[in-house]
Automatic annotation (TrEMBL):
Listed name of the protein: Tyrosinase
Signal peptide annotation: 1-25
Ranges for region Disordered: 26-73
Tree of life domain: Bacteria
Keyword line: Copper, Signal
InterPro entries, sorted: GriE/MELC1_sf, MelC1, TAT_signal
Phylogenetic classification of the source organism: Bacteria, Bacillati, Actinomycetota, Actinomycetes, Kitasatosporales
Length: 126
């Protein structure tokens, strides 16, 4: 068996680090995929996140939701959170507008984080 040289040890460590990085990078994608409905639209959710009730569901029909939110409604403690789907498939909300996330659920969680316990004030549609 060949001796373990420093070069081989460093190469093995680099390979392990690369494999760990690929695995951890794939985990968020798998999580985001779990938030998808069978037709590629986001799945409905209803959960308590940091003591706040966040809900999301697909909506049908036209109107404001269909144009900006991709036919999806999100609320925090029963107050509508205005969300929009970007061209690249990411989502933003009126609360965390400059921090795109992969799903409406993640947008609701980011809004709760930003609100830091403050109530969500309704956003006028127009």
């Amino acid at each position: 068996m060949p001796e373990l040289s420093r070069r081989r040890a460093l190469a093995a460590a680099a390979a392990l680090a690369a494999a760990a990085g690929v695995q951890s990078a794939a985990a968020p994608a798998a999580s985001a995929a779990g938030d998808q409905h069978q037709h590629g639209s986001p799945a409905a959710f209803d959960e308590i996140y940091k003591g706040r009730r966040i809900q999301g569901r697909p909506v049908t029909g036209g109107g404001h939701h269909q144009h900006h939110g991709g036919g999806y409604s999100v609320s925090v403690d029963g107050v509508e959170l205005h969300v929009m789907r970007n061209a690249d498939g990411s989502w933003i909300s009126v609360v965390s507008h400059y921090d795109p996330v992969p799903t409406p659920r993640a947008a609701a969680r980011a809004a709760v984080d930003e609100l830091q316990g403050a109530p969500l004030v309704p956003f006028p549609a127009n």
